[in-house]
Amino acid sequence: MSAPSLPFPSKRRPLSSLLAVLFLGAVVLSARVAEVRPQALLAPEALEHLWAFVRGMVPPAHSPAFLRSLLTPLRETVQMALLGTLLAAALGLPLAVLAASTVLFAGPLHEAARGGPLRWLARRLPYLLSRLLLNVLRAIPELVWALLFVRVLGLGPAPGVLALGISYGGMIGKVYADLLEGVDPGPLLALQSTGASRLQLVLYGWLPQALPNMLAYTLYRWECALRASALMGFVGAGGIGQHIELAMRMFAYDEVASLILVVFCLSAAVERLGDALRRRLL
Amino acid sequence: MFVLEGVGKTFANGFVALRDLHLRIAPGERVALLGPSGAGKTTLLRLLNATLRPTAGRLTIAGLDSRHLHGKRLRQVRRTIGTIYQQYNLVPRLRVVHNVLAGHLGRWSGWRAALSLLHPLQLDTAVAALQHVGLADRLWQRTDQLSGGEQQRVAIARVLVQDPAVILADEPVASLDPGLAEGIVRLLVDLAVQRQKTLVVSLHHVPLARAYFPRLLALQQGRLVYDGPPQGLSAAAWQALFAEAPLPAAAERAHVRPVTAFPL
Lengths: 282, 264
What we know:
The complex is a heterodimer of chains A (282) and B (264). Chain A is mainly α. In chain A, 77% of the residues lie in helices and 0% in strands. Chain A has a single domain, classed as MetI-like (MetI-like fold), CATH 1.10.3720. Chain A has helices spanning 14-33, 44-57, 64-99, 101-104, 117-139, 142-153, 157-181, 185-192, 198-232, 240-249, 253-281. Chain B is an alpha/beta fold. Chain B has 2 domains: 1-80 and 164-251, Rossmann fold (3-Layer(aba) Sandwich), CATH 3.40.50; 88-161, no CATH class. In chain B, a hairpin with a 2-residue loop joins β9 and β10. Chains A and B meet through α8 and α9 of A and α2, β6, α4 and α6 of B.
C-alpha cells in the first residue's frame, strides 16, 4: 500500500528545526537571566501584598473633591498628547519631504535631471541626512527624551510635549516619507510637464495624494501619544501619570484604581474617536 | 516648433525606445502619431515635452537645444507645452478647480500656488476653461467622482488654462469608450485650429487619425516608418503596420517604477 500523496509534499528543512531549537534555548536562557520566576507571585508574602492591593482598590476613590482634583491632570494629559502629536507632525513633515527619494532623485520625474558626481551627491545628501536624523529621533524612546527634558525644563507637561514631539516626529517623518514615495507618479508627471517647480509638485501632487494616509497615521500616533502621556508623569513630566505615581507611593490604592479606570476610559474613548475619523478619511 | 536630428533614446535598463529619428514639426501643424504598443510613441511625446532627454542626436524645441535646458529655463519651455495622458493623470483627491488651476503652476510662484489651494486664484480662468469643455458645473466637485470622459475633459481644461503653444496628447482616448473618443479628439482638434496651436496626438485608432489629421507619423520598434498625409498609405498598409507582432506593453512604460512583491 502506498502512502497517501499530499498535495504539497512537505520538505524537511534541517535549518528551520535548528532555528527552532535555538529560539527555545534563547527563551529559556532569557527567563533565567531576567530572573523570571512565576512561582514568586505565589509566595505567601507576595500574596499578602497582592491581597492588600486588591482590597485597597475596592471601592475606587470617588469623593467629589478627589474627582474634581482629577480634572487638571486629565486636561494636562490630553493636551500633552495633542500638542506632542502636532509638534511631531510639524517636525516630521518637512523632514519627510526631504527623506522621500522620489522627491529628490529617484523615479520617472528625474529622468531629465543633469548628471555629474557633484549634482548626484547634492541630490542625495539631504535625503541621507534627514533619514539619519529621523532614525536617531525615533531610536530613543519618548520616556528617555522626557527624562532629559525634565532635567532641562523642570517638572510639568512641557517636557512631555517636547519628548512626544521629538520621538514621534521621528516615527511620523519616516512613515510620511514612505507614503510620499508610494504615490502614483502619473499625476506628478502631468504637473511637471506644466512647468511646475519641485515645491509646487509637493503641494499639488505629492501631498494631496498621500494626505488621507498621512492623517490616518497621525491619528493613530495621537492614540499612542495619549497612552504615553499617561506614563510621562512617572518621570516628572506632568499629567495623570504623576498622580498615579504619587498615589502608589502613599499606598492610596483606591485612588490608584480610579486613576487607572480614568486612563482606561480615556484611551478607549480616543481609540473609538480615532476609528470613526479614520473611517471618514479612507 | 520641433526639430529632431538623429534622435535616439535608450533607457538606463538598456531598452532602446527610439532610434535615429529625423523629424520636423512646424508651428500650427496637426500630427497624429501611430504605431503598435511599444513602438516608442510615449517616449517620443516625453522627449517633446522635455521630461525626458534624448540619449543620441539633437532635439530643438522652439529653437532651443534641449541639451542646454535646465532649471528655470527648462520649466519655462515645459510651460509652453501642454500634455494630455491616457490615464488623465489628474490628482484624484483634489477638487476639479485645483486640477484645472494647476495649469498656472508654470507661471505662479510657490506662494501663489500654496495660497490658491486655500483660496483659488484666477478663478475666472478655471471657469472659462471648464465652460469650454462643457463641465462648468463640476468646478467644486472632487475629481475622483467624475467619469473617465469627464476627467479627460478636465485634463483638457487644465491645458487650456496652461495656454501652451503646443498640445501633446498620449493616447487620450484609449481608456474611453468609442462613443466618447471621437468627441475628445474633435475637441482637441477644434482647440488647436481655433487657437493656432501645434497638436501632436498619439492614437491607436487609424480611422480617427485619418479623419482629423493632415499629417500622420508611424512608428515601429522605435523607428519612423511613415511620415506624410493619410492618403499616402493604403488601408492595407496600415493593417500590416499594426499586425506587426506587438512588443510587450511593459517596454513602453519602462519609466514606471516596478512594484516589488513582499520578500517572503
